[in-house]
TrEMBL record:
Species for this entry: Drosophila yakuba (Fruit fly)
Annotated Gene Ontology cellular component terms: plasma membrane
Keyword Transmembrane helix: yes
Keyword terms, alphabetized: Cell membrane, Membrane, Transmembrane, Transmembrane helix
Name of the featured protein: XK-related protein
Chain segments annotated as transmembrane: 21-43, 55-77, 173-193, 213-234, 241-259, 271-289, 298-319, 325-342
Major localization class: membrane
Membrane topology summary: Multi-pass membrane protein
Location(s), subcellular: Cell membrane; Membrane
Length: 352
C-alpha cells in the first residue's frame, strides 16, 4: 500500500493546471446564465403581448420544466456523491431549487479560486483537496448545464425556426440574436460536458484548445442540421412532431437506462429521469453517458440520424433547405472524424 505522501505526489502529478482563462470562462457562464434566463422570459412576455398564447405557454413551459427537472437531478446527485450534502441540509427545498438553478456555477468558481490560492502557498494537501472538489463539482454541473441547454434551449430554437418557416410573425433582430444564443449555448455546453468528464478522470489527458474548438464546430454543425430538420417538419406537423420526438426521447432514455445503467442517485426513478434527459439530448447529438469505447455508437447514431434527415428532406423539405441540412451534417461528421484522428488526447497529446 502506498503511503499518504506517495499518493499525494502521484495525484499532484496527474492534476491539470487550472488557468485564469478557465476561471474567467466559469464567471462568464455564471453571467451568461442570467442573460439566457432574461432572453427566455422576455420572449414569453413578447408572445403574451402579441396574443400568441400558445407560444407563450410553450416558452414558459420550456423554462419551468427544465428548472424543476435539472434542479431535482442536481440535488439528488450532490446527496448521492456526498459532495454537497451539508449545504443541501442547511437550506430548504425552495432555496435548493432556486440556488441550484441560478447559482450552480458559483461553487465551481469558489473551488477554483481556493485551489489557486493553495497552489500559490504551495500547500499540496489543500491543493489536491480543492482540485478534487472542483473536478467533482464541474462534472456535476456540466451535465446539468447540458440538460438545461437541451430541455430549455432546444424547444425554444425549434419554436423560433418553426415561426419563421410558417411566416406567422416578423423575424426580429432580437429573435435572431436569441436563436444564435441558443445554438451557441448548446454546442458550448456539450463540449464543456466532455471536457469536464475528462478532467474528472485522473487517468485521462485534458482536451487541448484546438481540440475543444473542433469539438465546438462539429457539435454546432450537427445540432444546427438536426434542429433545422425537426423545425421544418414541426412547422408542417406540429402535434405529430412533438409526439414522435417525445416517443423517440423515451425510447433512447430507456435504452440508456437498461444498457449503460448510470447511477447518479439512490432512487431508480431519479436514475431513469436522468436517462430520459439524455434521451432528449439524443434527438440532436450523441454524447457518452459513461467512459467506454464510442466508435461504434457514434457510427450507428450518426448513420441513423443522417438517414432520418435524408428521408425528411426527400419527403417534406424544399431543395435549398434540404441541401443545407444534409451538407451541415456531412461537414459535422467530417470534422468529428478529423478530431478523433488528429486532435483527440488518446491519439496525440497537445497543449495548445
Amino acid at each position: 500500500m502506498a503511503s499518504a505522501e506517495q499518493r499525494t505526489e502521484v495525484d499532484a502529478l496527474r492534476m491539470e493546471p487550472i488557468s485564469k482563462l478557465s476561471m474567467l470562462l466559469t464567471l462568464v457562464s455564471i453571467l451568461w446564465r442570467f442573460v439566457s434566463i432574461c432572453i427566455n422570459w422576455s420572449l414569453a412576455y413578447t408572445y403574451f403581448m402579441e396574443e400568441s398564447y400558445g407560444y407563450c405557454a410553450w416558452t414558459i413551459g420550456s423554462i419551468l420544466v427544465p428548472m424543476t427537472v435539472t434542479s431535482v437531478i442536481y440535488i439528488h446527485t450532490l446527496k448521492y456523491t456526498h459532495s454537497g450534502e451539508k449545504r443541501i441540509v442547511e437550506r430548504g427545498i425552495y432555496s435548493n431549487v432556486v440556488i441550484s438553478y441560478l447559482f450552480r456555477d458559483v461553487y465551481a468558481l469558489n473551488y477554483a479560486l481556493k485551489y489557486s490560492m493553495a497552489k500559490e502557498r504551495d500547500d499540496k494537501q489543500e491543493e489536491i483537496g480543492y482540485y478534487q472538489k472542483l473536478m467533482t463539482e464541474e462534472c456535476n454541473v456540466s451535465f446539468v448545464r447540458l440538460f438545461d441547454s437541451f430541455l430549455e434551449s432546444a424547444p425554444q430554437k425549434i419554436l423560433q425556426l418553426a415561426i419563421v418557416l410558417q411566416s406567422t410573425t416578423e423575424f426580429t433582430y432580437y429573435r435572431r440574436i436569441a436563436l444564435v444564443v441558443y445554438f451557441g449555448n448548446i454546442a458550448w455546453c456539450i463540449q464543456a460536458y466532455n471536457h469536464s468528464n475528462r478532467l474528472a478522470q485522473l487517468d485521462k489527458h485534458d482536451i487541448a484548445a484546438k481540440g475543444r474548438f473542433l469539438q465546438f464546430l462539429f457539435l454546432l454543425c450537427l445540432t444546427v442540421s438536426r434542429t433545422l430538420c425537426i423545425a421544418y417538419v414541426a412547422s408542417l406537423f406540429p402535434i405529430e412532431t412533438v409526439i414522435i420526438c417525445a416517443a423517440l426521447a423515451c425510447f433512447c432514455g430507456t435504452i440508456v437506462f437498461l444498457v449503460d445503467s448510470p447511477m447518479i442517485a439512490e432512487s431508480r426513478l431519479m436514475n431513469y429521469l436522468y436517462c430520459l434527459c439524455f434521451g432528449v439530448v439524443y434527438l440532436f447529438i450523441f454524447t457518452p453517458v459513461k467512459d467506454a469505447p464510442t466508435k461504434y455508437k457514434y457510427a450507428f447514431y450518426l448513420t441513423f440520424c443522417l438517414l432520418q434527415n435524408a428521408i425528411a428532406c426527400a419527403l417534406y423539405i424544399p431543395l435549398y433547405l434540404a441541401t443545407t441540412i444534409i451538407a451541415l451534417y456531412i461537414v459535422g461528421i467530417a470534422l468529428l472524424i478529423f478530431y478523433y484522428t488528429y486532435c483527440h488526447p488518446n491519439t496525440v497529446r497537445t497543449y495548445f
